[in-house]
Write a structure and sequence with these properties.
This protein is 11% helix and 22% strand. It has a three-stranded antiparallel sheet, covered by helices on one side. A two-stranded antiparallel sheet has the order 4-5. With 104 residues, it is an alpha+beta fold. It has one helix at residues 21-31; strands at 36-39, 46-50, 53-54, 63-68, 88-93. The two termini are 22 Å apart. It has one helix and five strands; from the N terminus they run αβββββ.
Length: 104
């Protein structure tokens, strides 16, 4: 949106064997000194906020979602294993993904 805009432009990241989408997010936000908060561990990891923009900050149905190669996975970011060449996007939804055309 106009307020938050793009937090991190497209960035190339080396994917290591066994990396989850959450592992890569943690590594990239640390490297770029971007605030990120999550709860849970491994497959139960849940992203609560990135760059001080949290779930429900923009309404009851707002929060972070991730997309890999143009599709919204059905598993949590901590459970989704990446492959070299995957494209990951973290997007903030205002309407449980409907505004992002997610079919969840």
């Amino acid at each position: 949106d106009d307020e938050a805009g793009t937090i991190l432009p497209p960035t190339s990241v080396e994917v290591e064997e066994g990396d989850s989408a959450l592992d890569v997010l943690k590594r990239v936000t640390r490297q770029h000194k971007i605030q990120m908060e999550y709860s849970g561990a491994s497959a139960a990891g849940y992203v609560e906020g990135i760059s001080n923009l949290y779930e429900m900050d923009k309404g009851a149905e707002s929060g972070w979602m991730y997309r890999v190669n143009g599709k919204f996975p059905s598993e949590s970011a901590g459970a989704y294993r990446l492959k070299p060449g995957d494209t990951i996007e973290w997007l903030y939804t205002l309407d449980m993904g409907k505004d992002l055309e997610a079919s969840r």
